[in-house]
């Protein structure tokens, strides 16, 4: 796995578009290998009769379940490699994304940015401690830059989803988002008449998510800037379920719905914010009923 990551990182470090694309494809292939079960040929099943559709095509690979991942050697190796700076995929993808943004917009470059954002989402879900990177202003600002109106709607939508993944269960990152006027950036985009309908839908979904009460942080960054284990379900397979005093203190930096409603009401009409809160309490858009 180190050899594959080494080749991928070499390509991601390039300024050449085709090489960056190759690096992204290598990372995508690795994540797919970890997350998907091996496809089986339909001809191996004695009960399945050949048809024109399955005669020449193998069964599609299926996503592995969380218990499968916990005992999967490839996932365990990947997770352990992510604990160090040298092999951390999220860090490399963010560095590449930063260069792509600085390069300027064109069709091919936008596709590379979209691919990088999708992979960042996947890596953060597989290795939650990597979310600690977004407690740093440089990386949070990178996402906020990508929701600016100068970017195409597809990038704005993908960035909003990446932002949700970076903030979920991580109040430390949410405080960084707020400190950098992230709420102002989101609400300004929502109020902009030129914002596309698809982006506005994603913005409403983001505001629903933001208003949800918070739980203590999953990842944390150590004094050495390293990444530490998460108490999430994925991390428990490595015995990382405990919290030290510092983590408990950081976990108290949370906001409830009322506090967030007050902040949001400073940027949007109060009746709009109240409607969002009513929807959260009655419609349970995330499958959770809030009392």
Textual characterization of the structure:
Helix 1 runs antiparallel to helix 2 and helix 2 (17-35) packs parallel to helix 6. The chain has one domain (2-39, 61-283). It is mainly alpha-helical. The protein is built from 15 helices and no strands. It has helices at 2-12, 17-35, 66-70, 73-82, 89-103, 107-126, 137-146, 153-167, 171-179, 182-191, 197-211, 233-236, 245-251, 257-265, 270-283. Residues 38-67, 236-259 are annotated as: Disordered. Residues 242-259 have a biased composition (Basic and acidic residues).
Architecture blueprint of SSEs:
Blueprint (H helix, E strand, L loop, with lengths): L1 H11 L4 H19 L30 H5 L2 H10 L6 H15 L3 H20 L10 H10 L6 H15 L3 H9 L2 H10 L5 H15 L21 H4 L8 H7 L5 H9 L4 H14 L8
Helix pairs in contact: 1-2, 2-6, 5-6, 6-8, 7-8, 8-11, 10-11, 14-15
């Amino acid at each position: 796995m180190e050899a594959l990551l080494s080749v991928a990182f070499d390509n991601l470090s390039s300024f050449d578009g085709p090489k960056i694309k190759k690096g992204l494809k290598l990372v995508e292939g690795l994540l797919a290998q970890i997350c998907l079960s091996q496809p089986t040929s339909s001809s191996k099943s004695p009960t399945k009769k050949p048809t024109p559709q399955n005669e020449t095509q193998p069964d599609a690979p299926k996503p592995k379940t969380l218990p499968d991942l916990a005992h999967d050697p490839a996932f365990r190796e990947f997770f352990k490699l992510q604990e160090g700076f040298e092999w951390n995929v999220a860090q490399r993808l963010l560095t590449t994304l930063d260069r792509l943004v600085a390069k300027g917009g064109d069709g091919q470059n936008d596709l590379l940015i979209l691919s990088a954002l999708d992979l960042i989402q996947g890596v953060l879900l597989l290795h939650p401690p990597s979310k600690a990177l977004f407690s740093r202003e440089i990386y949070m600002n990178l996402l906020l830059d990508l929701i600016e109106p100068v970017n195409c709607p597809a990038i704005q939508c993908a960035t909003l989803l990446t932002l949700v993944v970076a903030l979920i269960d991580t109040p430390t990152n949410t405080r960084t988002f707020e400190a950098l006027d992230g709420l102002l950036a989101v609400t300004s985009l929502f109020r902009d008449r030129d914002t596309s309908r698809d982006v506005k839908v994603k913005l409403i979904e983001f505001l629903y998510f933001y208003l949800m009460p918070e739980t203590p942080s999953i990842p944390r960054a150590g004094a050495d800037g390293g990444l530490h284990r998460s108490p999430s379900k994925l991390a428990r397979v490595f015995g990382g379920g405990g919290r030290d005093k510092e983590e408990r203190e950081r976990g108290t930096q949370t906001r409830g719905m009322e506090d967030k409603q007050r902040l949001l009401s400073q940027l949007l009409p109060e009746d709009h914010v109240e409607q969002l809160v009513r929807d959260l309490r009655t419609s349970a858009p995330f499958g959770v009923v809030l009392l």
